[in-house]
Amino acid sequence: MKTVIVSEKDDQARKTANALGHFDKIGQVYVLSQTDLLEGEVHVVAADGHLFEYMAPENNWKLENLPLVDVSFKMQLKKAEKGRRKNFGGDPEKCFATIYQEVQAADRVIIGTDSDREGERIAYSILSRIPGGKKKIWKRLWLNSMTKKAIRQAFQNLREPEETYNYFLEAEARAQSDWLVGMNLSPLVTLKLQQAGQVPWGKGQAFSVGRCQTPVVRVICENDLAIRNFSPRLYWKLQLEDKNNGQIFSCKEKYFDSEEAFEATRSLSSNSLVSSVERRKVQQQAPQLFDLASLQDYASKRWKIEAKQTESLLESLYLKGYVTYPRTRTRYITDYEFDYLKMLVQAYQEVLSSTFELVHLEARKTYVDASKIRNDSHHAIIPTETIPDFFSLQPEERLIYEAVTRRTLLMFAADCIYETSTVRLKNQDLEFVAKGRRMVDLGWAAVANLSVRKDIELPIYQVDSLVPSSISVQEGVTKPPKRITESMLLSEIFPRYGIGTPATQGTIIETIQARGYVTKDKETGQFLPTNKAYLLINYLYDNEFADPETTGGWESFLDQIGEGAINPREFVDGIKEKLTLQISQAKERND
């Protein structure tokens, strides 16, 4: 019996082989004559990422040839990348030839690529091009971390390939729809703008249209327009001062006519009635564990590390076996992870030089809830049982590892406890409010190295008592919308519209900059659209392929393909129909 395991990267293949036992490396293949986890000889070989790509069409840069929807999605081996020092020297042909030979000689195959949609697609795109390759697929290795213990445990719990095949179908539908959008709308927009004289003819003038990237460019353009068109307005608000102690109370009512504000002050009495006094003790748990998006957001805000770079740093730490699987959208773990984390808390504290009292050693639902982890996903990003020599890591790796580990430790710390107080005064029909806050116990906030607001103590007030009042008018000015930053894309825009996945969002941000649609201010991190972005969005403004709401809806459909609820062909055919309609309408218009 000979078993071949197809990994995604050479580091992954080596760690997999090492977890199985003693191996010899013959060429680029890790060979084990025996292992206690599998019967017979085992060979582990790495694919080095995507080896195949869709063939580019030869005739889509003429308007009369669009739409290009009657396609078979033929794939070809990617070309070797010069200077790429990876498995097989970055030569896909040599890599595929080795995998081909190994699979042909195998009795069965285990898919051991990354445990996600793209990992499925990499495996099936290779195995489907080897005669009998798909029929030899026996099991799916599903890894949450690259520690020896985790790999061995995964081999003891191999999944049936049918359990994850729909993730391949989803990834393929995603790739095909993206290809269709790019190969149809990119030439359409470029050629139509050139015909209109808005873009010069020639190389280097092409516009790139993407199913996810273009809606993001539109959101950034709309944000820029809202800021440009914003006209600041003066407004006035009433403020009340307690004559006895100087405590200030604010009224939320805004007046855009100063005379109306002053008229309101003249109608108020010299005493205000205390209508309510509320005191509340707040016990706040530590923040949830990180998923990829929340960690990218954190790194962007704290250190201005770009989303794609955060993902790369996490990937490096994952392959070294120090953190769990990075491209997750789940912020929960199971009891299994919680138990090993609890056992190793002291070791994590030592590596971070952060000692604190362990108060919550029970598994709380805010962090530990297996029901929140989907079958196609992974648990939250946490440190593994393998603890690194902290200073052997690269400086930015240390930042990310510390962020993940510290966030994980917070769930064992005491809750942050503070008291709030709210006093409301009534004067005629207007309400004036003062709010106070007093910290009782910093708890986890002290461990998180957060800056804490100063206490605001309010005087003692009794309900129904009268407060001698002095009323004043305060002038203010309305503020424009905030300019979009990378952090806002990750924490607000992408979740609001459902654009992209954890594996693609960093690439989307990187792409819209590389294609010349937006620039990022190095100091503020704010995104500004270019003239090229406005040309693109002005042309596609009424096109649903530039609509973030529509794109988010498509992501929902794609998720359902991964769940086996929708036929991928129906989705791709729907994209073809929409492209055909959009291109037909564009040809009829004289724009």
Low-confidence stretches: none
Helix coverage percent of residues? Answer: 25-40%
- The global form is flat
Class per helix and strand makeup? alpha+beta
Amino- and carboxy-terminal Cα gap:
65 Å
Strand content is 15-25%
Radius of gyration: 29 Å
Biggest sheet details: 6 strands, mixed
Mean pLDDT: 95
Please give the count of helices: 18
Number of strands: 16
Describe the 3D structure.
The chain is α+β, with helices and mostly antiparallel strands and 591 residues long. 40% of the residues lie in helices and 17% in strands. The chain is built from 18 helices and 16 strands. The strands form four sheets. It has a six-stranded mixed sheet with strand order 2-3-4-1-7-8, sandwiched between helices. A six-stranded antiparallel sheet has the order 10-9-14-11-12-13, with helices on one face. Helix 3 crosses helix 5 (161-195), helix 5 (161-195) packs antiparallel against helix 17 and helix 9 crosses helix 15. The longest helix has 35 residues, at 161-195. The protein is flat and about 95 Å long. The termini are far apart. 39% of the residues are buried. The model has no long low-confidence stretch (mean pLDDT 95).
